[in-house]
Amino acid sequence: MTAVVRLPEALEKRLDALATRTHRSKSYYLRRALEEYLEDREDYLIAAAAWEEHVKSGKKGIPFEEIARKMDLNRE
Asked: Given 15, 41, 54, 74, which is the most exposed site by the fewest CB atoms within 10 A?
């Protein structure tokens, strides 16, 4: 798939400089940025849906301190 992206001049200059400095294509960095964004967004949406389901269930959560104590997770 081919896509056209319009970037602000300052962002384009940064992208150009990075691509030149690392001998990678601008497409490489745009693709990586999109992959990372989508992964983060998908994780967020999954977590938000799980939280909503938890809230609707009426179940009480377990405080982190209790879990840490049970698992002996001393943070010192």
From this structure: 74
Q: Count of CB atoms within 10 A of residue 29's CB?
A: 15
- The rounded distance, in Å, linking the Cα atoms of 57 and 61 is 11
The confidence band for 29, taking pLDDT boundaries of 50, 70 and 90, is: very high
Cα distance between residue 25 and residue 18, in whole Å: 9
Task: For residue 70, give Cα distances in angstroms to 61, 65, 76.
Answer: 15, 9, 16
Q: Enter the pTM of the model.
A: 0.70
Q: What are the extents of the domains in the chain?
A: 9-70
